[in-house]
Amino acid sequence: MMSNANMIEVSNLTRTYKTKSGGVIKAVDKVNLQVSEGEFLTILGPSGSGKTTLLNLIGGLDKPSSGRIVLDGLEFSKLCDGDLVNVRREKVGFVFQAFNLIPTFTALENVEAALVPTNMPKDERLQRSSKLLEMMGLSERANHLPSELSAGEQQRVAIARAFANKPRVLLLDEPTGNLDTKTGKEILQLCHQVSKTQGQTVVAVTHATYVKDITNRVLYMRDGKLYTEIPQGEAVQ
Amino acid sequence: MNIVGFVIAISTLITLVMAARGWETCTSVPLNDIGTDIIFIYNAPVKPLNTGCYIANHLFAYPFNQTLLAEIEQVPNVECAVPILMHRLRAMVFTGIDPTQTITNAVKPSDVIEGRYLKADDEYVALVDKEYASLNNLTLGSTVSYAANYTVVGIVEVSATNLIKSHIYVNLPIVQQVLPEKPIGFVNMGLIRTTSPSNVKQVSEALKEQWPDSSTLTGLDLAETAFGVIRIGEETAWGISLALAVITVLFAVKSQLGNVGERTKEIGILKAIGWSNKNVVNQIVVESLIQGVIGGVIGCCLGLVFGSIALSTIGGEIGGALSLVPFDPVLIAVGFVIALVSAVVAGLFSSLRAARLVPVEAIRTT
Ligand SMILES: Nc1ncnc2c1ncn2[C@@H]1O[C@H](COP(=O)(O)OP(=O)(O)OP(=O)(O)O)[C@@H](O)[C@H]1O
Ligand SMILES: [Mg+2]
After folding, report:
1. A85 in contact with chain B, both atoms CB, cutoff 8 A
2. Is residue B95 a contact partner of residue B169, using CB atoms and an 8 Å limit?
3. Boundary residue ending a domain (B212, B244, B262)
4. Are the Cβ atoms of B270 and A102 closer than 8 angstroms?
5. Are B54 and B8 contained in the same domain?
6. Which of A51, A61, A178 has the most B C-beta neighbours within 10 Å, making it the best mutation to test the interface with B?
């Protein structure tokens, strides 16, 4: 399933934030990263290390201060805003850190929302959405609002939504945050399985170390920089 | 909530306009019955005598020379001035008319329900009111008296809203002869018809200017005294409603903007999962439109209900204006369209702000 072509290529990527006090935070600092097609990459890092910022940049939600991002052969800096919308719609599936489901939509409608901007007819959208919920073991919960679902169920809805448009790249931001170890593992396993069968490239970001068991590669993030090994002087969490 | 705003604005609009129409209809009814736009009289400081008094619309009305009516007819926009001599003795009202006037008159040929109308050469014959006739067992051929005896040739049914409803109607020259004051050549009322209802005000002012001691009664004056309702013309009602419509739009925009503000996160998520600005705008406009449709429908229904209540209260003296004001689909349509338009404007306006949202920033706000 894995090929040698790079699905994601990030070079010299920097994203700085100006603080109110006038200082500059380098949330992502000169990051270089290649992810091959079909790879399942995990980035481990403590809170505030820049994981979310990096994922947002790769997913085209945010713009870098400098550096280059190429996703499936498309260089972001050469795309206009409308094209970036297309990338988000067609190429990328996002699972946000805090679920980020629409509270007034049911589970089914939340999944369908990812398909609304496509040309797919309504009944086909609903059909696909219910199939995805079924894959996530949520058939019974399709018509429930997020507030009526447990954290694990909400996370599975969010994952179903990320898979809805059959993205080339799946970006998972703390897919197991807020979940107990057992549920977290199950959910990651599920993501792994689905992405494997669909040939998707996955970048998962977490500080849960157990992901190591199921991923192809682990990188460590500290203060906006990526390392292949745990930086010296630190103990494994 | 937005729907409530639409409901309030639209129902107020419909109620106001319906009430205004009812009011306007009411004011024209009493004088319409006698085909008159203006009643011309001289209010007189006359005390009732034992022999009776001259009245007009429950006011004392001083007799004036009949030739004055010919002069009145020379006033621009006056079509005709019809002579009436109305006299009262205790509860009885006795009126002299010119039977050649069939459009504008105290009693008209169309009011006759039995027998015939008066002819110009009739002398001691009378028309009597239906209720008066039945109370006194009068039939065609019976005799009635008021200063003299008359043969009943016709029974008339005159609307209760007719301001100069009388018991007995006799030819004017006979009345002038038989009354104890012998007012030969005098009348105490002129029924004036103008060339168009829109000229009423101007004619009435012209008359007062030319004959400063005279009084004129128009439908408007009557309604103010007779119906005791705060007057809103249809124009004013539309004016108020227009202001309301503007307020509705502003209110809807403000409320939709607040809505977008509250939903920043939601919109950010949708943009993050691939919704284009166009998708977001569509969604918000459609939602706003749905609110507008619901608000518009409820507003129209409530407006009809309140409008009907207002109409049955207005003009209580003539049994309410409800039956007089026809249901107007245009008014309902206008109300509904205002709701829709403000909904679309509000949706578009607020979605423009939503479209400017940057998805990452929206998602960060928790
Ligand atoms: N919009 C912003 N404005 C200013 N600073 C920001 C902004 N977004 C992130 N930062 C800062 O950038 C750094 C990296 O943030 P980021 O959210 O990427 O961390 P993270 O690794 O995802 O942390 P966590 O594990 O808690 O989610 C943090 O120090 C954060 O305070
Ligand atoms: Mg994060």
Report:
1. yes
2. yes
3. B212
4. yes
5. no
6. A61
Q: Which domain holds residue B304?
A: 2-26+229-364
What value of ipTM does the predicted structure carry?
0.86
Measure CA of the first residue to CA of the last residue in chain B; give whole Å: 23
Which parts of chain A fold into alpha helices (H)?
Answer: 51-58, 81-90, 107-113, 122-135, 151-164, 181-198
Asked if A90 is an interface residue toward chain B (Cβ–Cβ < 8 A), one would say yes
Residues from chain A contacting residue B274 (CB–CB below 8 Å): 85-86, 88-90, 92, 114, 117, 165
Whether B234 and B346 share a structural domain = yes
Closest atom of ligand 1 to CA, residue A56 = 18
For range B73-84, the mean pLDDT: 92
Mean pLDDT of A22-31: 90
* B243 and B142 assigned to the same domain: no
Residue nearest to atom 22 of ligand 1 (CA): A52
The partner residues of A41 in beta bridges, in order of sequence, read: A203, A217
Q: Which pLDDT score, from 0 to 100, does residue B98 have?
A: 95
pLDDT digits (tens, 9 = 90+) for B224-239: 555 444 455 666 777 7
Name residues whose C-beta falls within 8 Å of residue B16's C-beta, 6 or more positions apart in sequence: B232, B237, B240, B241
Local structure of B82: helix, strand or coil: strand
Cβ contacts of B92 within 8 Å, gap of 6 or more: B146, B167, B168
The answer to whether residues B52 and B188 belong to one domain is yes
CB contact under 8 A, A113 and B270: yes
* Percent of chain B at pLDDT exceeding 90: 29
Tell me how far CA of residue B233 lies from CA of A160, B21, B25, B240, B352, in angstroms: 62, 7, 10, 11, 40
pLDDT for residue A84 is more than 70: yes
Structural domain count of chain A: 1
B32: in domain: no
CB pairs under 8 A between A and B: 53
Domain containing residue A212: CATH number: 3.40.50.300
In the structure encoding, which two tokens stand for residue B40, read together? 């011309």
Q: Which residues of B touch A (CB under 8 A)?
A: 265-266, 269-277, 279, 359-360, 363, 366
Span of A29-38, A203-212, B20-29, B41-50 with lowest mean pLDDT: B41-50
Domain that holds residue A149: 6-227
Do B157 and B279 share a domain, yes or no?
no
The answer to the question of residue B81 being in a domain is: yes
Task: Lowest mean pLDDT of A37-46, A132-141, B6-15, name the range.
Answer: B6-15
For residue A234, is it within any domain? no
Give chain A positions within 8 Å (CB) of B361. none
Let me know if residue A233 belongs to a domain: no
Summarize pLDDT for A155-208 with one digit per residue, the tens.
889 999 999 988 999 999 888 777 778 878 888 888 888 888 888 999 998 877
pLDDT of residue A106: 94
Q: How many domains does chain B have?
A: 2
Q: Which two tokens stand for residue B189?
A: 């009322």
